[in-house]
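hey can u run this one w/ cobalamin bound, need the structure tokens asap thx
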Amino acid sequence: MRVILSTAPARYWQTTNFMLTNFPPLALASCAAAISPPHEVMIVDNAKHRLRSHNLFNHVKNFGADVVAFTNNFYPDSLIIQEVSRQLKEAFPGLITVVGGQAPSFLPEEYIESGLDYVVLYEAEETFAELMEFLAGRGDKSVDQIEGIAWRDEDGQAVVNPRRALLQDFDPMKMPRRDLLPHYPSITRRGYPSTAIETVRGCPYHCKFCTRPTYWGKHRDYSNDRILEEFALIKRQGFKEVMFTDDMMATDHAKMYALCEELIRRNLQISFGGALRADTAARHPELIAIMRRAGLFFVNVGFESYSRKALKDMNKASTIDINKKASETLRRNGVLILGSHVYGAPGQTDEDLALITRDGMEHCDFFRMNMYTPQVGSALFYEMTREGRMPSRNPEMFNQFEYLFDDGKDPAAMRRGFVKAQLEYYLHPEILGNALRNKTPKERVIRRAYLAAAMFTGYRALRKVGIEIM
Ligand code: B12
Ligand code: SF4
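ok here u go:
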């Protein structure tokens, strides 16, 4: 079979990806490894060509694809994936469409009913390989026997097969097909490529707004031996920078400490970054110091809020004091901090909302803020659905810029407050100065964030007057 694996064709909300573009779509490289050989695979990274129109139709024609499979974590992307899949099937009769990732795993029926042929649910490596063998006519299982897929029966009804058991050991897993990914430039060393690595699946915490605990259920680690083997391969492939895709790095402190000792001993000289909890940084300064020596240059920290009540309501298991200490420790060690925040979470007063930009800018090098959103699959989503407190189920409304709670607040006023708070950051002379200089890694990322914000605003405004150019 000839299989194209693809990210979602671009839409305006994806311009926010700009800020952290150093993450290539590792899910597609892992899925490619799982099925090739025997199948022939091409990766089309539409997200990379974010502002140009996607060229999937030409790729399908030229590659002679039998299957096009999309990755889809973010629910708003379901709209374009479903639309493009319909168009592809019309243009290429017989073409099979597949989707995998978070949103379709949580809502498989929605995708099958929209016309996609198969959904690969949750962890995909074994399921996708079995599905491809079935489609090639070689598998020894019938469609209803393949664990972890959703499909359409003869009556046009969606059928969701039982879930597959999670992998218990990642060591035997094939290395992701990084050779199929496009070039992503390094932030730290200009001229070199950057890549991504996965060292855990899942997160042991239970923040109410997050989908990771519900998606993976159980937190599982790759062994340090496997991670070191992958680092060595990455080094041989010429990468100088790697981003950890882990939900949360270093939740097992001792394991991360040992990994860093070994990275230092092997002198691999690869810079790395990823997501880190504030309490890990605040409570384990020695761990941050060794991670820095091993190559850590950047972390994404979910500070979320500087309101005690809001942090508690979100089940963040963190405090304002921890946020402050984390920032101090990371700064002392010279690690760049991307601080993620949420606007409009329950329990936030007007003063609390004002603190997000004020304290947020103080605590981090790059400030990021989304509207608090009941993401499909999160505990918050199920709670809001149960209580009938979500005013819309239109996927586009989940783009993290809309106020999606029916709680007496005026959504338009919340949106205005949100935009005003963003402007406080983007119009700050110091931040603007960084973007204009564009020399250091910090300045380069801030510049990207500006471009993203400008494009988001422009494309969204055009959309409002009926012009769709992505
Ligand atoms: C890297 C990353 C990004 C990169 C994406 C780069 C890329 N092109 O892939 C960037 C920085 C651009 C990004 C942007 C955003 N992201 Co992001 N991102 C991640 C992150 C950290 C890692 C993803 C990854 O590579 N994982 C490693 C791979 C191997 O695992 P996986 O993706 O789960 O794939 C497995 C299965 O899910 C499945 N699978 C997945 N895709 C497919 C496809 C097929 C065909 C098949 C068969 C199977 C399959 O198979 C894989 C192997 O088992 C995740 C958190 C996480 N740990 O996953 C958040 C995460 C996915 N992002 C998130 C969010 C919110 C965003 C943004 C909205 C942020 C923002 N406000 O702008 C945007 C939206 C972008 C978009 N349109 O999707 C949320 C999603 C929440 C949700 N339910 O919507 C997550 C879960 C973070 C979190 N903790 O909340 N992100
Ligand atoms: S927000 Fe971060 S710490 Fe909380 S559950 Fe999600 S991945 Fe884990």
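The longest helix spans residues 441-464. anyway lmk if its weird
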